[in-house]
Amino acid sequence: MIEGMESFTMVEFPTTSARESAEFFGSVFGWGATQYGPEYTDVDCGGGVSLGFQQDHSEAPAGPLAVIQVDDLEATRSAVLKAGGTITVEAFDFPGGRRFHFREPGGNELAAWTPTGQ
């Protein structure tokens, strides 16, 4: 088990239109969006939780991807492997942080991330 601050901060979805997905949630719930290029939009749901919409099919998850913020990415990776999980996407940098994807023994894929500078 890892010690520190761990919390769900995002759910990322595949989409056929990042812009239209963001506009939908803005219209329904009044949530604001930040576009990171033409194929990815982040929608701020409030309370430190956001929805990510990935339009690039080569990078999009197969289904909803829960993302957990952690203090120590390497310690989390080690804990995932020790507990029987598998790494599905090795750690990579993105605007604002670094993350990796993993599959828990029941078959669900999730991601762990840490903000830049941690």
Automatic annotation (TrEMBL):
UniProt-listed CDD domains: SgaA_N_like
GO function term, MF aspect, one: dioxygenase activity
Keyword Glycosyltransferase (UniProt): no
Xref: Pfam families: Glyoxalase (PF00903)
Family annotation (InterPro entries): Anthracycline_SecMetBiosynth, Glyas_Bleomycin-R_OHBP_Dase, Glyas_Fos-R_dOase_dom, VOC_core
Domain VOC stretches: 7-115
Keywords: Dioxygenase, Oxidoreductase
Domain of life from the UniProt record: Bacteria
Matching PANTHER family: GLYOXALASE FAMILY PROTEIN (PTHR33993:SF1), GLYOXALASE-RELATED (PTHR33993)
Designated name of the protein: Glyoxalase/bleomycin resistance/extradiol dioxygenase family protein
Organism: Kitasatospora cystarginea
